[in-house]
Amino acid sequence: MKVLVVGANGQVGKHLVKFIQETDDMEAKAMIRKEEQASYFKDLGAEPVIVDLEDDPENVAKAFDGVDAVVFTAGSGPNTGPDKTMMIDLDAAVKTIEAAKSKGVKRYVMVSSFDTTREAIQSAPESFAPYVAAKHYADDWLRRTDLDYTIVHPGGLTNDEGNGKVEAAETVARGEIAREDVARVLLETLKNKSTTGKEFQVVSGSTSIEDALKSL
């Protein structure tokens, strides 16, 4: 299986590409924005592809040639304004969903925010509400497709070393999770076909990732 990782140069994306390359039956195609980011992925044996997610949909879709699945883990980042949030977390997400449809890539895994319900938008701090709203509508766009999707809602992200133990369910108590473990969850999601058509929240816990996803 060849997996296109959108946002591969992010912290979760880098972990995911590395984990994919360590498997026997998957390989990663790393979507990045700058040529100088390519060497990291080449050293892992992954295929880098340089795409600006704010480019026109046709150019974005070219990256989907020859892939079997896509993981969207891109984000505008914490230091940008609502304009970039709209362009990356919503518009770029929709462009990749539409690209998957046009290129016949059925498997699509979305990394979302922990809670993207309408209630979460209304209760979010003013500075955070545009991000939650963008994720809300990107998730909704994906749900309305016929793609084999999974939407992953991780808790607060940390740079702690992962331990492969999580709590995952449709709803869980708010908590934190290491970015490394989010990447492991994404890898297991790709492996586990029973996650198709589902979405779940995930935080650090006491259950192995494989078992936690099996119980969804």
TrEMBL record:
Coiled-coil region list: none
Pfam families (alphabetical): NAD_binding_10
Stretches assigned to the NAD(P)-binding domain: 7-192
InterPro entries with a match to the protein in the record: NAD(P)-bd_dom (IPR016040), NAD(P)-bd_dom_sf (IPR036291)
PANTHER family with a match to the protein in the record: FLAVIN REDUCTASE-RELATED, UPF0659 PROTEIN YMR090W
Protein name: SDR family oxidoreductase
Species for this entry: Halobacillus salinus
